[in-house]
Amino acid sequence: MGKMMTRPIKQIFNGGVMKNLNFFLFTITLALQPLTIQAQNLIYNPGCEDSLVNGEIPYWTEVIGTDWSHRANGNPPSYEGDYMFFPGAVPIAELQQDIDVSSNASAIDSSIQYYYFEGYIRAYNQNPPDHSRIVLEYLDTLKTTKLDSIDLGEYFSTTDWLQLTDTTLAPIGTRFIRIRLISTRYNGSNNDGYYDGLSLVGDVPLSISTNSITIPEEIKLHQNFPNPFNPSTTIRFSIPSVTQNGVEGSLVTLRVYDVLGNEVATLVNEDLPAGEYEVEFNLPAGRQGTSSIKHHPSSGVYFYQLKVGKYIDTKKMVFLK
């Protein structure tokens, strides 16, 4: 991406901790010529907006129940668009889609490929309400070996759409990611555990905007601010056009480690042009609206390390709950 730019930039990343990384769709803005780019959603028909084909939902497979359909916006309103996923009149219903991620095999098998899932669930306003559940499975080439499984839990929300998210480092050998929608009826004849706004992205989303055209004279890693921090802090660094250790366009990595030397997060890992950069690092105490809190970061010292060519610099920061 950096090789395509001719001007220095100011770059803001959103980072976090392993599976709790909070990624966002990214936008890139060039000077005097705004341009918006979204990370590709790998899920086909993610909001059940496509027209039914012979009464079936395109790109999705009925595993349990044969009444899966799309429910029109109304009561309740859809999260987005005109429709939402509707299980039909069955006690338990399951719908699934297998997503081919083999094009990312190299990154997956190098243990650097994350996938971020986001989905919204809701139930009809009745007591007791029906429940929705989302399960993500990372599968091998033949889809016979389950390399990882993330159960986002069984939930209901009768007043608003509830967001469920997960960010996972794809296990080595992953070639498919299975999205499972499972609804359970607790009341009435219809199974009213709804789904909408599903997305799965395999890019590390980032936000880039232009900065001044001043070219830094040296590589420099600045102290994060604020420090101590909770839950987020900003890390700044500079890259000159030509350095004693390499040239513009060198691979730049910025990683965070705990006191034991374990890698907590990779914030930057790409070729970058000369410029001043800002990276926002987020170390959340937990995730709201998700199935569970999978990681509780500890208060204490963390280290962040910048590498550009042969240049290496490490600084300390403190996280306080």
Characterize this entry briefly:
By secondary structure, the protein is mostly beta strands.
How would you characterize the overall build of this protein?
By secondary structure, the protein is an all-beta fold. It has 2 domains: 2-39 and 206-319, Macroglobulin (MG2) domain (Immunoglobulin-like, Sandwich), CATH 2.60.40; 61-201, Jelly Rolls. 2% of the residues lie in helices and 47% in strands. It has 1 helix and 23 strands. The chain has one helix at 105-109; strands at 9-15, 28-30, 33-35, 61-64, 69-72, 83-86, 92-100, 114-123, 131-139, 146-155, 162-169, 176-184, 193-201, 206-210, 220-221, 232-239, 242-243, 246-247, 251-258, 263-271, 275-282, 300-308, 311-319. The strands form 7 sheets. Strands 14-1-21-16-15 form a 5-stranded mixed β-sheet, with no helix packed on it. Strand 22 and strand 23 (311-319) form a beta hairpin. It is elongated and about 70 Å long.
Lay out the secondary structure.
Blueprint (H helix, E strand, L loop, with lengths): L8 E7 L12 E3 L2 E3 L25 E4 L4 E4 L10 E4 L5 E9 L4 H5 L4 E10 L7 E9 L6 E10 L6 E8 L6 E9 L8 E9 L4 E5 L9 E2 L10 E8 L2 E2 L2 E2 L3 E8 L4 E9 L3 E8 L17 E9 L2 E9 L2
